[in-house]
Amino acid sequence: MPVNSTGKRLSAFVLALALTLSAFAAFAREDAFKLDYIVQESGDSYVTLPRLTGHTDPAVEEAINAAIYEDGGFPGYERILASLDPLGTGLQVRAQAQIVRGKAGMGLLSLLITASGRIGPGRPGYRAAPLVYNLSTGERITAQEIFADITEAQAALDSLVAQEIEPVISDYLYPEGLYPVPIDELLIDESGLTFYYAQYAYTTLSGQSGAVSFHWNELEGLLNREEGSLLSTLILSDAADRPADMIKDTVAQGRLPGLPALLGRDLQEVLDEYPPLTDSEAFPSGEQVHPEDARLRGTALIVQHDELTGMISRRTNLWGLITGTSSQGDVHTFLGLPDAALLLDENTAGGYGLEPGSLESYRYGGYELRLHFDTDLILKTVWLSRAN
Predict the structure, then answer these.
(1) Architecture of domain 142-239 in CATH?
(2) Which CATH class is domain 1-139?
(3) I need a surface site. Which of 32, 209, 237, 384 has the fewest CB within 10 A?
(4) Which DSSP symbol is given to 378?
(5) What values do phi and psi take at 228, rounded to 5?
(6) Strands lying side by side in the sheet with 357-364
(7) What is the pTM of this model?
């Protein structure tokens, strides 16, 4: 969406502030890390360069920033920005960031650099570059550090895609592009892994580079979790030492594990950043929108009166509470009894697109966590909303 320079600066600032708060807030109790965003502009085009500051080791900080600049393709983007025809196709380079916290060490810095428009010679396009760095050493993380056997993992990922992703993609997309999964182009967050395809290998309906995403529990048996391994040092959604505290902390930030804090942000800005996969569907007092972003697979955004009021997910791992697996008893063991509960008959549940059962709610900060169970008392849906 074209914006003027002032609006773009404001948008970039708001985005930077939101990312800094959501990704670093919980981590800042232990370290003074901060991520600044340097925005270079030319007309309606811009390049957003993230830079790590406040690291206790200046050499590691410098190494990570140099790697971000090179690995993210910024030398090329800056050259393109400087040579753009004001009347031609523009260039927009954005950055998203998240800290994957360590149990004892500093954890990981996980970045997604996306570029759209005039990203190189030829027609306009889109490119996504996932970058993950060890905050203790400055080294970039590779798939070899994540999987126990890289060959076995590649075959298993291709099989998972064939079973879970290919059957549900649009008929307008070419499933052949899904294989092989680009195992080396991975983004790590607290909830799992996302793999990003090269430009034109697999493209979404919006024209963005495609991706596939899996939670840690969906990859069990493939991961290297031996003592001393990288994953054994991280605080992940399926292996947290204090799951109840992690749930409360995450909900109080207005987000779900591995996902950005979207509630409270401008609706159009969110929809521009996370294009809808399909037309919106009816929802009481509004509608639900399914983004095409792979990390939001199984998750819908709730829009009421032109405001983004909630997120409802049928596929999530809420720090050990897993949809389709965890029971009501598991939830009560983690969180205690709910603040409120409601039985859902067929008519009431159907209005929300849910199965009959029950809905229990917990309040943390300015947000409400609603957990939906079926008649067998299995957790089916996690619904996060702003508290009334």
Answers:
(1) Alpha-Beta Complex (3.90)
(2) alpha beta
(3) 32
(4) B
(5) 90, -10
(6) 281-283, 286-289, 299-304, 307-313, 379-386, 367-374, 357-364, 340-344
(7) 0.88
